[in-house]
Design a protein that fits this description.
20 helices, 531 residues, globular, 11% strand, 6-stranded parallel beta sheet
Length: 531
């Protein structure tokens, strides 16, 4: 009986594959110049899968594709920000972290960076040649709602449907432009505050103010700047206003997933694909790293601050705090630091410049992950079931680390106030309290239980857009003006109606009362006359 069931299941899978819609080979343009290695990893994961299915992909990016990728034409595209990252100092991070402390207006820093990237790209000779070419593309894959709005011109130029990649999940701008619910009362804006989904009155007030300020600034200041860039570098008199082009985005692939975030609604034109960058099979660990981790009898700690925070920006006091703390621990420490050696490195610490992070976290000896709180690392962490100490810097990292705390799988350590004592306390708190590990393992079971792999979902919906171009996934809410979307016109009408009813009733009651008074006066007067 078991063999029969297994055979029927195999037959069902084969039949579903054979009956799946077939998409002819398409030509896809991908423009991803933002200098974020983690975003690039996810983007190339999707692009390589599309190329393996026979689609021709042309990529403009500062990061080359994997060497084994076929059907991908790569055009190197660097920006001043990409080059500037190599000279960043601690003060640069301090300013960004401090700027994000008021009403989420760290978004200003993102918009400034995005505007610089877009201008560098649009005036690049390769892009100028592309915009003036007669090339044909069937689909444009870009990241416009991550402060790169002016890139929407590629969709207009090639008259192709646009798929938006959203590298850090949903937020107020994406929700508003897509017609999705802002969910202000119970979903904190990930670019604003590290709140949970159970906000107090004051937190809801702050979330509301921040969202209104962000949306107002977006329409009044940010979009006009990108409209100016389009007019300067894309001299096409038929191009519609930038807002209209952004509203015509066919699909958004959001780096989010319902098992990896606070539960929220999604309209059909937003597809969560969080974790799509993760491989279904384990990458082999380099032998020297594998030997180090296998030999960790007391377990090992993995320490990585992601791809944006280079080792040279950390002040010596921070580095010494880390080293002194690691020296006290019985655990081994694998530290992705970007340099080969440090003076006074303890014997239990191994420095590396790179490692397959997913494989490291899923190693059975991994007992703790010290992370900056990036969303890509978050998916790998929760998938592996490893507790964390989060050291957020900027962007959505504070929000992600708050999510760790809310789930009971980790604690936060403030980047601006790190000392040897605070660092040691954070680590030992998580290691010595078994609840963090148990919560992480329980969440791992939930995260792994999916009906479809996120990468398969991403590819299916991209090919869906190729098969069915148009705006049938977009809700009408995406086109409503703000006062209609928030029912202010309806509320105003109801208030005016109630005021009119009140005035009418008030006048009527006054009239009836005066009539009664006159009748009473007349009756009294007649009574006196009779007497």
């Amino acid at each position: 009986m078991r063999g029969l069931c297994r055979g029927m299941l195999t037959l069902a899978i084969v039949m579903s594959v054979l009956s799946a819609p077939v998409v002819e080979s398409a030509r896809i343009l991908a423009v991803f110049p933002f200098p974020s290695r983690s975003h690039s990893i996810m983007q190339y994961t999707i692009l390589v899968e599309l190329a393996s299915r026979g689609h021709e992909v042309v990529v403009y990016s500062p990061y080359p594709p994997p060497s084994s990728a076929a059907n991908i034409t790569y055009v190197e595209l660097t920006t001043s920000l990409f080059n500037r990252q190599k000279t960043w100092k601690f003060d640069d991070f301090f300013k960004i972290c401090s700027k994000e402390s008021f009403y989420g207006f760290g978004v200003d820093a993102l918009w400034e960076v995005g505007l610089t990237v877009c201008e560098d790209v649009l005036k690049d000779s390769k892009i100028s040649a592309l915009l003036n070419s007669t090339e044909k593309f069937d689909l444009v894959f870009i990241e416009p709602l991550f402060a790169q709005e002016s890139f929407i011109v590629f969709g207009h130029k090639f008259q192709a449907p646009v798929v938006n990649f959203q590298g850090f999940g949903t937020w107020s701008i994406l929700n508003y432009m897509s017609g999705n619910s802002l969910s202000i009362p119970y979903i904190p804006d990930s670019r604003s505050f590290p709140f949970s989904n159970k906000m107090s009155f004051m937190e809801r007030l702050q979330n509301t103010i921040s969202t209104v300020i962000t949306l107002t600034s977006y329409h009044m200041t940010h979009l006009p700047k990108h409209q100016k860039l389009i007019q300067q570098y894309y001299k096409n008199s038929t191009s519609p206003p930038i807002l209209d082009m952004l509203r015509n985005i066919s699909l958004t692939l959001a780096n989010a997933h319902h098992t990896l975030e606070y539960t929220r609604p999604y309209t059909p034109n937003i597809v969560p694909i969080g974790g799509a960058h993760m491989s279904s099979h384990q990458d082999d660990l380099p032998q020297n790293i594998k030997n180090f981790l296998d030999d960790a009898k007391e377990g090992f700690i993995y320490f990585s601050l992601g791809t944006i925070v280079p080792a040279h920006v950390l002040p010596d006091s921070y580095t010494q705090a880390f080293l002194n703390t690691f020296r006290k621990l019985p655990n081994k420490v694998l530290w992705k630091f970007g340099i080969d050696n440090l003076p006074g490195l303890p014997k239990n610490v191994k420095l590396i410049k790179w490692a397959p992070q997913q494989a490291v976290l899923e190693h059975p000896n991994c007992v703790l992950f010290i992370t900056h709180g990036g969303v890509f690392s978050q998916y790998e962490t929760l998938h592996a079931g490893v507790p964390v100490v989060g050291i957020p810097f900027f962007g959505d990292q504070r929000y992600n680390v708050k999510y760790y705390e809310d789930l009971g799988v980790g604690v936060k350590l403030d980047f601006l106030t790190i000392t040897e004592e605070t660092f040691h306390t954070a680590i030992t708190t998580v290691l010595n309290d078994t609840r963090y590990k148990k919560n992480a393992e329980s969440l791992s079971k939930i995260v792994r239980d999916k009906p479809m792999a996120p990468l398969d979902s991403a590819v299916f919906w991209i090919e869906y857009v190729l098969r069915h171009p148009g705006q049938h996934l977009r809700p009408a809410s995406a086109l409503l003006p703000w006062y209609q979307l928030w029912l202010l016109d309806v509320a105003t009408t109801i208030i005016i109606f109630l005021i009119l009813v009140y005035l009418i009733l008030y006048k009527l009651s006054r009239y009836l009362l005066s009539c009664c008074n006159r009748k009473k006066t007349f009756s009294i007067s007649n009574h006196k006359k009779i007497k």
